[in-house]
Every structure is written in structure tokens, then in C-alpha cells.
Specification:
Length: about 130
């Protein structure tokens, strides 16, 4: 399967002067919007809601901080107020790989089109 990346803007939910623009990998196996710890200060002061154990794709267990609120903007989808998970990341080829997990995807009414390798907007919110 191919990789799906989207242009994203992440803003501090209470102070929009703090923002990050990046390409983020859509990862339906991840729950949260996930960013590297080294970017945390770029979003200003956020409330730390919890520290959690996180199992990564390599099955390593690391610690992460769930913080918020942040405003996530993805082109063609409505902006969503959500939480962000900060973890230690190693840059691949000098670049960090932020992740957009299934919670913010559902909030934005975005689903993965497996044939077209893209995100598409769903017409209805699922309550079933």
C-alpha cells in the first residue's frame, strides 16, 4: 500500500500565533495527532493532560505526553480542535514524520480511499 501524506497546519488552540506547517503521514493504526517532542515549544504553552505508554510501529514502548488543545487544519477538511501526542522521534533522512491518527481523521470526517491513495470527505458522521 502507498503512503498518504497531507499538508497540515497545527495551531495552539488558545493562541494562533504559535503554529507549525508540515507534511504529515496519515496513519490509521495510530490514535492521535503525533508530533516529535522537539517541536513542542513551537506550539507555545499547552496543557499536559496525561503521560501515557505508547507502543510504536516497531513494537517499542515509549512514553508520550498528551497535550492540548490544538487546532488541526488539513486542506479540504474542516478544522478540528483536538489533542496532540508528543513523543521522542528520530528523524528519518533528517526529517521528522508527524502522524495523523484515526481520532483527528474521524473528527474531520476524513477517510482513506485505498484505491486512490488519498483522503476523502465523508458525507455523514457515523453514530452507529
Amino acid at each position: 500500500m502507498g503512503r498518504i501524506a497531507v499538508e497540515a497546519t497545527i495551531e495552539n488552540g488558545t493562541d494562533a500565533t504559535f503554529r507549525i506547517r508540515c507534511d504529515a503521514l496519515v496513519d490509521t493504526g495510530a490514535a492521535y495527532l503525533t508530533l516529535p517532542n522537539v517541536w513542542r515549544d513551537r506550539l507555545g504553552t499547552l496543557t499536559t493532560l496525561d503521560t501515557v505508554a505508547v507502543e510504536t510501529a516497531t513494537q517499542a514502548v515509549v512514553s508520550g505526553d498528551i497535550c492540548g488543545p490544538v487546532l488541526l487544519r488539513m486542506e479540504h477538511f474542516r478544522p478540528v480542535l483536538t489533542e496532540v501526542l508528543f513523543i521522542e522521534m528520530d528523524p528519518a533522512d533528517g526529517q521528522y514524520e508527524p502522524l495523523i491518527g484515526y481520532i483527528p481523521l474521524e473528527q474531520a470526517q476524513a477517510v482513506v480511499d485505498l484505491v486512490g491513495h488519498r483522503l476523502v470527505k465523508v458525507s455523514r458522521v457515523d453514530l452507529k
